[in-house]
């Protein structure tokens, strides 16, 4: 993939907020997917040397078969501290390096993090989607902002996630008897479509196959 850098990555928190607020205006939360979707990708991160080295992994799978087609791995020095709400500035630089190595351009990317379910409506899935101009979904393992009603313990059940009077995502049960995931639009996809694709990418486990494979590549295990 050819990627155009939008801004520097060594920034102050104030500069990062300004970028989030500026780029958030470009986020599209309606469906603009290439049809049919033939390839889905997952991106995930690991860290080495006490967090000083970022290790990003990309896994590209066929869709709807979910068969692994391609992987890539990239390392670079970590240039931004861990601060909730600013995950993208810490992780995306290495993710972009890994994406540049792949030969198959995915039609949809599932991110291990938030989309618009974010204090400034600009989580890592939004940030990545804007930069690479590919539809993205945030599939987070934990809640960052918002409230929701109790969720039934049946696969496919979901409840709206609301924050400051706005629906910003969904709490989705992908497997009976396990914790839900938090789904939100990243870029160029609506929430109902995002929920559908997350479920179709999650046939067996709590997390999408894209994320599970990328996590194994990115981790130290």
Automatic annotation (TrEMBL):
It is found in: Cytoplasm. The keyword Nucleus does not apply. Keywords: Cytoplasm, DNA damage, DNA repair, Endonuclease, Hydrolase, Magnesium, Metal-binding, Nuclease. Its main location: cytoplasm. It catalyses: Endonucleolytic cleavage at apurinic or apyrimidinic sites to products with a 5'-phosphate. One of its GO terms (biological process) is DNA repair. Its cofactor is Mg(2+). Its EC number is 3.1.21.7. The keyword Hydrolase applies. The record marks 82 as: Interaction with target DNA. It is an enzyme of class 3 (hydrolase). Mg(2+) binds at residues 44, 112. Pfam families: Endonuclease_5. Transmembrane segments: none annotated. GO terms for cellular component: cytoplasm. GO terms for molecular function: deoxyribonuclease V activity; magnesium ion binding; RNA endonuclease activity producing 5'-phosphomonoesters, hydrolytic mechanism; single-stranded RNA binding. InterPro entries: Endonuclease-V. DNA repair enzyme involved in the repair of deaminated bases. Selectively cleaves double-stranded DNA at the second phosphodiester bond 3' to a deoxyinosine leaving behind the intact lesion on the nicked DNA. Belongs to the endonuclease V family. HAMAP family: Endonuclease_5. PANTHER family: ENDONUCLEASE V. This is Endonuclease V. It comes from Fischerella muscicola CCMEE 5323. The lineage of its organism: Bacteria, Bacillati, Cyanobacteriota, Cyanophyceae, Nostocales.
